[in-house]
Amino acid sequence: MQQFMLPGKSNFTDALGFVMGAGLDVLRASNFVQLIHGGNSRRPISDTALVTAVFLLEDGTEKEFTRIIKMQQRSSSAILLYLIDKAEVDEKRYLDEIGSSGLCLNFENFFIFQGNVETFVRMKPKNFTSVIEDLCGSGTLRIKYDDLHRTIRKSEDQLNQLALRRKTLMTENRTKKAEMLVYKEYHNLMQELVRILQKLKKSVISEFPCFKYSVSYQF
């Protein structure tokens, strides 16, 4: 960290955010010149400031990422330069290389600077949960989760409808069984009545041969 603001806890987090590619919207400056030591008082002690982060890779090798602020001559503005292992690259490759190391730079709350700590701590549980989801990446699964939740609710509704239909069919089945029992009882009574009438007819004819008697029945 060379000529980057002044020593201090807040400045260190700003430097860390700067080398990781953070923009002015999260750094404590309105332009990059202010990040140079003395730039806030419009008297920067140098026309250049840089921060280098050294990554220790799994194979034991190191990789350097350097982000440089360079003031333009005859102007109060500055340009940014990006180096990987001291070789200049464009911003996209620089950020892609950092991202390939497993750092999720695109998450809104990847860096929580000192000025935001109090706000972070005072967050409501719902908002705090959203921050945690962003940090761990689970927020990217919300759409899939919501789709699955809707599918489950739809399946539950269909299951409830089937259960209601089953209950209705069971009630109808019991009613039909009761009707069948009544019909069988009626059928048996009619058969018994026919037998009685036939027996009566035979008895009348045997007693009065000349008496004409007919019995008609239908069921």
Automatic annotation (TrEMBL):
Annotated protein name in UniProt: Uncharacterized protein
Source species: Coptotermes formosanus (Formosan subterranean termite)
GO annotation, biological process: cell division; sister chromatid cohesion
Coiled-coil ranges (or none): 145-203
GO MF terms held by the record: DNA binding
A cellular component term, taken from the record's GO annotations: nucleus
Keywords: Cell cycle, Cell division, Coiled coil, Mitosis, Nucleus
InterPro entries per UniProt: P-loop_NTPase
Keyword Coiled coil attached: yes
SUPFAM superfamilies, sorted: P-loop containing nucleoside triphosphate hydrolases
